[in-house]
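Q: Two folds, back to back.
A: First:
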Amino acid sequence: MLNSFKNWLLENNYKPSTALDYEMRIERLCRNESITLEHLAQNIAEILPLYENTGEKSSYGKRSHTSVKQALRRFKTFLTEGSN
């Protein structure tokens, strides 16, 4: 699924470096939170707000110029429209 996400980003004109970065950030977040990628995908609507500006994990979401939060947002978009 992560490879499909990266390819979707590339198809949507993201730079290769950004696509790879977002893929790695999603993978790292799953590892750090001890959740599977499938769990993240199935629960993205509940998990993403935790990393937004007022969420309890917002400090992690703001890392590297909000790249973690942006990766989660793009992953949610990929799940809703990109994987059809």
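A: Second:
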Amino acid sequence: MKLKKAILLFAMILTGPFVLLFCLLLLNSVNPMQWAFLTRFKVENRSGQDIRITPIGTRGDEGRKGRLPVYMIPLPALPSFRSGHYHLKNDQSITIWYDWDDVNFSEIAVRAKDGSYYEFIVDPNPLQNQYHPPTSKYFVIPNLKTLSIARPQIVDVVERPDRMGIYYVVLLAGIIIFWKFWREYKKIRILKTANSTGEAEIQD
């Protein structure tokens, strides 16, 4: 019994950081400083075909490309499971919330039905006047023939795994494992208390 209790306690110590991280995530979701940098924009598809879009941002003086830090809703401000590959039928639109702190919204990567990539330029000079919200909050994707073929660095960003979804899965798994260990640990303590009480009654 003592060995099992020690093992469970050690397991809870290992998985405890997942619970702590979840609590910090919830606290940050209602942080006024977080809300200050949240903004939204709308993208409408008028290309004449179904497409998938991924908003791209530019960071740093060297102009590193990456997906925008997208959020589900502004309150609570929780990072979205997905940050790209949004499917838009023709004439369909989508509203996206993102955190513009430390990133300039610079391009929208567009994937056509045949798998080819194009890019819609949002900010032609993303390294200037860093960092700021988008100058426009409404973007219309035109006929794809009018767009430029996506640069390799843009395609590379789009094809990277969506890490936030992976983080959420790992976080959820850690919390579930911690909860199961905690329940087993609690059962042992209750059983030990019951046994101690029973022994005391017998002695009386």
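Q: And?
A: The chain has a mean pLDDT of 84.
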